[in-house]
Write a structure and sequence with these properties.
The protein is an all-alpha fold and 59 residues long. It is 85% helix and 0% strand. The model has no long low-confidence stretch (mean pLDDT 92). Belongs to the SecE/SEC61-gamma family.
Length: 59
């Protein structure tokens, strides 16, 4: 397969994905934002706890 064929195949795949995808509505967008925010908070809390434990152990 040469460069031209692989490029055309890639473009076809991109067009298919764009055709199938849709813009999220307001409710879906808010839900994704809430889940993402919650994940960031949880990771921050875990990092904070690890930092506190490391300081208590004198590392």
């Amino acid at each position: 397969m040469n460069l031209k064929e692989s490029t055309l195949r890639f473009i076809k795949q991109c067009r298919r994905v764009l055709h199938v995808s849709k813009k999220p509505d307001k409710v879906e967008y808010i839900n994704v934002a809430k889940i993402t925010g919650l994940g960031i908070i949880v990771i921050g809390i875990i990092g904070f706890i690890i930092s506190i434990i490391a300081q208590l152990l004198g590392a």
